[in-house]
Amino acid sequence: MADDKADVLQGTLALMILKTLETLGPLHGYGIARRIEQISGELLQLNQGTLYPALLKLEQQGWVSSAWGTSDNNRRARFYSLTKTGKKQIETETDNWRRMSAIMDRFLTEEGAR
Amino acid sequence: MRAPALVQRLAGFFSRGRLRDLNEEMEQHLELLAEEYLQKGLSASDARAAARRHFGNLGQVREKARETAMLPSLDSLSQDVRFAVRRLKKEPLLALVAIVSIGLGIGASTAMFSVVNSVLLRPLPFPEPERLVLIREMLPPLAHLYPSLPANGRHFLQWREQSKSFENLAALKAVTLNLTGVGQPERLSVGRVSPNFFPLLGIQPALGRNFLNEEDQPGRDHVVLLSHAFWMSRFGGDPRVLNSRVLLNGEAYLITGVLPSDFHPFKYSQLGDLVTLGDSMELFKPLALDQQEQTSYGDYDYAVLGRLKPGVTRAQAFTEMETIQQRLTKALPVKVDYHCTLVPLQEQITGSVRRSLWLLLAAVCGVLLIVCVNLASLMLARATRQRREAAVRTALGASSSRLLQQAMVESALIAILGGLLGILVCYAAAGALAAFSPASIPRMEEVRLDTHVLGFGLALVALTGILFGAAPAWLLSRADAQEALKAGSHTTTASRSGLRLRELFVGSEVAVCTVLLITCGLLAGSLFRLSNVDRGFEVDSVIAVDLTLPSTRYKTKEQTTAAYDRILEKMQSLPGVRSAALISYLPFGGDAHVNNISLPGTELPPAEQPVANFRYISPEYFQTMGIPLLAGRAFERMDREHRVGIVSDRVAQKLWPGENVIGKRFHPASTEVIGVAGATREVRLQQEPLLMVYLPYWLRPQWRMGIVVRTSLRPEAVAGLVRPAVWGVDPEIPIASIRTMRQILSDSIAPRRFQTLLVSVFGAAAIIIAALGIYGLVAYSVAQRTNEFGIRIALGAQGADLYQLVIRQGLRPVIGGLAAGLACALAVSRSLNSLLFETSTSDPIAFGAVTALLGIVALVACYVPARRTAKMDPNLALRYE
Q: Which ipTM was obtained for this model?
């Protein structure tokens, strides 16, 4: 079960992270995970650990940067923030997602209509 | 600007900082999650468990993170390396054996290759060396004895004048001159060279200047150039020697320059046969041909080097030179049909050792091959032992390509470590080769480890790694994981085909070993026959002294003769001396004083007359050397008035077949025959006795002569008395050497002996390794068949029956390998013909001995592990797995 969830979310997780960072500003891993679960209305129970490989990839691609800082409860935490390129990327990714879902829609309604 | 992902990943591989941070992050994340659950009311342990579940499989996440942060391939590679190191540490003996044997094999092979590379492959250290040729004369009637001859002085001058194919033509002749006035008198080998000799080779003096054209005449030629080695040893590298003088043969010569250190004067003898001096030249003076040397009757004694004009091929130059020779044939009064030969300089210098060096390289690579095959066999056995482990890993999810990669990494690691050891071995071996190689191998001073040698070594490392890594890899690919995991599965298909593969390995080891040993046997047989061939004279109890009278003090024939008379008297009066005699040229030095002989009144042109080696001797020569006088008598005092000579029996048979020759006369100079001496191999040990003519020394007393002394005591004991005796006559006589005749004989065989020794060492290594291989295989198969033996014993088999079984199976691949090896050896040995002496390339003794030796060794190697069967308890054997 856990595996299925990870597969489904791979491409979408990246977009979710980016959107979260855009909205909430710099945030640590736990914070991002909480927010995603929150937004999805607790319908999405993702394995929070899967966030980290995704964050690393985003870092490599240059859309996100990270640094050590202090959290609200005065603990040391690593904060991730959106870069300029990352911000631009959100638009591109959103367009892709919309296009993809539109195509999928047509597919499914076609099937349904038969 | 962010670096591309690949670079980041590479960086990530080498600095694990990011991953460490990530680990810390994830730890904290888990803590925060656990706190969340605590607040929801779970107990501490439950909260932690829930946090873990919510987070997901920490291990998997870490794995995924690693893959993202680094290059998985590089990562798995480093894992494999660490794993391989661990596995090797578990079997240190195997690892040690593998690394050391590969190291020795690669080191020795690379060292040998460095010699082959420096001597044969690398071009000569002159600019555009491919344009350098050596021009020699060829006279068809003499071609059967002397395929080519050094050039004649007059001809050289004609070539220089008439030829258009060459940018430069220069001549070289080596002579000995006595150096006096600087410490101990010394006899030096001096090169007489044309002024354009060094420019032709592209060599500039490091100090001072080259010879001028006007110095190339008798009378103006008292200038010398020093070789670097001589400058260092005699003058300590002092630059002030420039324009000072040295005394050579009593005459003053001006030092005009010093040659550069990277010029190693070749030995004159490397420039072809029929040259009388074998030492490296230490000084050079202008050629300055005198009147006599410029006639057609002058000696054929000059090495002529030419540099082809750009664009002119050797073939074109040869055609032109042949035309010039034809013109000379017509124009000159001496009626001889002249031809010439044109040989690239490198080929001339290195041609004689080419076959031998390639043979040595092939032999040492053969040993390396055997080492690799043996290791492959060992690795295969190990892989079979560990196939259960491999099966378990497969069952746990390892892909076969990953297992393969791991196996290859392991063998690559061994090969690389072996290669590193090989570098050390190579240095040592190359040093040993340079130090102990016989002086006859040219260009040894140029041997060094350069990029070609390094490339060769790397190629060997790669090949060996692949060769013995392929075997276990192959086994892995045949493995059926299920079968391997089953209990009692030691007779799986994989292990059976592994056994067959190992038998193939053993067979091929034996085959290569056979070829190597037969080569060794042929060479050894050849060496033995050469050492014991009937020379026709004594070598034990004889001392040979090589001295030169200083020409300044002995100007006339009478003075020289008198000096020798006195020296001989002194020698004969020494204690322990039975007799002493003079000889103009010591044995085994090659041809010298070669001249025509003919009957008075014959019409044969000179080129078709028989040719003999002349030697000038004192009366006691034959008795000192133990050469029998077959007829007539030795020289006596009264012969000083007449022209008399002694001929060898071959000459007698040739000129006067079937007749009594005493009293007959022959040319040159109408010499009367007063004796016939037995045939000797004085000129060259490996050649049939040549025509020899012995004339009394007072006819032509040379400044340089040899003295042979027959001793009644051990020659070494008497040797120390020789120098004082000679210096008692004249303390300024340089003595070049005092050796026993045995030593001279030994020195002349030295190259052959060196070669045979090396091949024997390789052969010995090969047979030891092959024997170990056979032993290993038989021991393994005995262990494998323990179950079966238990059954047989239970069914009543006796010890002898089991022995037979084991030995038969063990010998099977050996016999196959031996047969293949013998066939190969028969084919290959043909190419050894030129290296052998009176030994056929299919010498039955050699082949028989090698077969017997291998048979015995194989039997022993099979017998030892077979003894285990005798100690088998059938109960235990039946239950063995």
A: 0.84
